[in-house]
């Protein structure tokens, strides 16, 4: 007897986002009581998102599959851009190897967790009810809203707002590449490398008085990525994607 699959609708995606936020925020609160290190809350949130996708009836449509080889060229511009940012971040010297390893592990966990939640579950849930651009904009806005918690946790309200705007613009580019490649995994790679570059760029210049320069760097960095996403979702390509979804 086969187990019925869960339909990945917009209401379900919103509920899943609430659970995902509870796991990430609650996990961070528990981690704050112990020594710093690998963010286990992100691993827990990623496992939750993956389990929901595996149980859904639209896991392939949501991007839980390997991308077609002919679409991989679309990933090279943002990937090379992220690599360039990483080289610039390390131009003034390398942080300690242990710090680099911890940042790399956390960047990978964050990338997997956020991409599965926002570009797989939430975006597909939005596409179940709306056209491409409304779905992309709404999922990207929620992606930005979720990032306000990072700034608010430090008391930097202004930084939180800047980070929300940067994450929203970033979400547009990420969603466009996810839709064009029909897979979430290329964006996991780009997202992880991007976060790794941004975080390591700020390690030699830590924030003072709880104010981080990371949101401002991120806002300037994501503008080209957002424009690339707009180009990828131009009208001719949206029409082609609509035919694929039929």
- Separate helix tally: 10
**Mean pLDDT, nearest integer?**
83
* Quaternary structure type: single chain
Number of strands: 0
Name its key features.
10 helices; single chain; 246 residues; mainly alpha
Blueprint (SSEs and pairs):
Elements: H1 10-31, H2 40-55, H3 76-89, H4 97-127, H5 132-146, H6 148-152, H7 157-181, H8 185-202, H9 214-232, H10 235-245
Helix pairs in contact: 1-2, 1-4, 2-4, 3-8, 4-5, 4-7, 4-8, 5-7, 7-8, 7-9
Description:
- There is one protein chain.
- This protein is mainly α.
- Helices cover 72% and strands 0% of the residues.
- The chain contains 10 helices and no strands.
- It has helices spanning 10-31, 40-55, 76-89, 97-127, 132-146, 148-152, 157-181, 185-202, 214-232, 235-245.
- α4 (97-127) runs antiparallel to α5, α4 crosses α7 (157-181) and α7 packs antiparallel against α8 (185-202).
- The two termini are 29 Å apart.
Task: Please give a quick description of this structure.
The protein is mainly alpha-helical and 246 residues long. Helix content is 72%, strand content 0%.
